Amino acid sequence: MKGFAPLFKKEIREQLKLYRLVIVGSIFLFFGLSAPLTLKYLPDLLKMAGEQGMVIQLPAPTAAQSFASFAGNIGQLGALIAVLVAMGSIANELKSGTAIMTLSKPVNRSAFVISKLLAVSLTFLISMVVSSLVCLAYTVWLIQGTAILPYLGLNLMLGLFLVFCLAVTVLFSSLYKSSLAAGGIAFGVIIVQGIISALPVVGKYMPGKILDWGTGLLTESDKSYWWALGITIAAIGLCIYFSQRFLKNRDL
Amino acid sequence: MTAISAKGLSKYYQTVKALDDLNLEIPENTVFGFLGPNGAGKTTTVKLLSGFAHPTAGEAWVAGEKVGDGNLALKAKIGLLPDVPAFYDWMSGRDFLNFIGELHSLPPAEIKKRTAELLELVELTKYGNRRVGGYSRGMRQRLGIAQALVNRPKVLFLDEPTSALDPMGRRDVLNLILRLRENTTIFMSSHILSDIERVCNMVGIVNKGKLITVDSVEGLQKKYARSIFEMEFIEDAARFVESLKQIPWLAEPAVVMDNGTPKITVRAVDIERGRKELPRLISESGLTLTRYEMTMPSIEEIFVEILTNGEKK
Q1: For residue A149, how many other CB atoms are within 10 A of its CB?
Q2: What is the CATH number of the domain that holds B274?
Q3: Looking at the structure, do residues B122 and B167 belong to the same domain, yes or no?
Q4: Which domain holds residue B268?
């Protein structure tokens, strides 16, 4: 993978210089804060909004609910943000001509692809770790009662799912010079696999199922989706492989 | 030694022949000017020779390396300036050259030294720490040339290197090319004919994807020499002009004023005979000759003639 180190260094600098880490981090932080805060203060908010004398009975919030709400935000809106951030990663370079400037030097195209995916994945994973720690801290403080290990498992699944979304987007970004086309198709693929993951029989093989596995850990469900986990990891690898193949086969 | 060699190199886009059966040998330390109108196949050729487009047929070697995208040894030996160089606008010019040095696996101390040298060479030292996003078109072009030189390439591909520049910028870039040609082979595509005439010692003319001719600038000028002779004398040469009118292998002798100086022009019907006999006729006239010249066509005139009438056999 000749050229990986300088390319990765450049990608990391780009994440910082273009404020991607700050933007993604801020949005994720909002997810991390909003889940426990909403759960804790929802009854009070409803009481304030409701008419005098009206009584709304809500069950006491649990840590599992807070974490599930956080996971729901990351799994859906986080995936959308992943597509938006990664859709131009290669397409914009192909369109602007910076790809030809970089690839005219002795660097592998696989190094070009992997450095991009790794850097943007790091941005999302760092943002996720920070937001999940914030979510954990606020949940413990406001709601009490937590299970660290299931929460850790959930976060691993969420992180892997985000990397899968990024890898799919990078794949289409290497195929199209239009970042909108790349993002649109990638988002479509993620939506379709999400729909299929809800179906019986085939659903258990879809990457989206690992999110169910993660949230299931919070309720001590014994359902595991090893096939989905394996396929998600394999899909990430295949996306990297085909991205660099597409780049190799295309005229720049 | 051959620096660039192409055999049957072709690139077709469906039915469009962007480049058709290019056969080319360019010796080392040549500045090769690749001339052609817009859409002739110049950029396609540069992309094929630098490994950025896949040929439909044929093969090529550059700096002793077979051209192919996966050949990293080739990329270590070449420099490329695309027609519109693009940069990461958030980087400074210095950052960008450092980055390119790292891609070439140069040691850190060498990168620092080379970056400083190149910024100096392209006169960007003062602007080295400014973001590339704030550079003018000319500054970007010069930075593009600098990045192509980081690895001291054996072969340098310059695609329209002066097209975006003002006259001063063009002059600087051409001077730079003249300095580089001592130890680098340069393949320069352009449609600015005066630039090619100024710096290139070998020229190829391409049109509609076909290489029409390849020769040295002098060879082309000889081949397309027109049979017009020009003479200037100290004395009045009216009687000499009259005597030329009697000679059957000469035509249209005339006196024309050139910046206030009378100049005699005559066309030789038989160019070889004109070359041999005219000096004798001048000598016999007893006039004092101050200038005698068989007019050479400019590259522009040759280019227009080739595109209009095809190659002279």
Answers
A1: 8
A2: 3.30.70.100
A3: yes
A4: 226-295
d(CA B140, CA B182): 25
**DSSP-based three-state secondary structure for B262:** strand
Per-residue pLDDT of chain A (252 residues; tens, 9 = 90+): 888 999 999 999 999 999 999 999 999 999 999 988 988 887 777 777 766 666 667 777 888 889 999 999 999 999 999 999 999 999 999 999 999 999 999 999 999 999 999 999 999 999 999 999 999 999 988 887 777 888 999 999 999 999 999 999 999 999 999 999 999 999 999 999 999 998 988 989 999 999 989 888 888 777 888 999 999 999 999 999 999 999 988 888
In a domain, residue B305? The reply is: no
Task: Identify whether residues B133 and B282 lie together within a single domain.
Answer: no
Q: Indicate whether B27 and B94 sit together in one domain.
A: yes
As for how many domains chain B has, the answer is: 2
B104 at the A interface (CB within 8 A)? yes
Q: ipTM of this model? A: 0.87
Same domain membership, residue B252 and residue B198: no
B306 found inside a domain: no
Q: Give the count of beta carbons closer than 10 Å to the beta carbon of residue A138.
A: 20
Residue to test with chain A: of B43, B100, B103, most A Cβ within 10 A: B103
- Predicted model pTM: 0.83
Say how far apart CA B169 and CA B174 lie, in whole Å. 9
Within A143-178, residue ranges assigned H as helices are 148-175
B80 touches chain A (CB under 8 A): yes
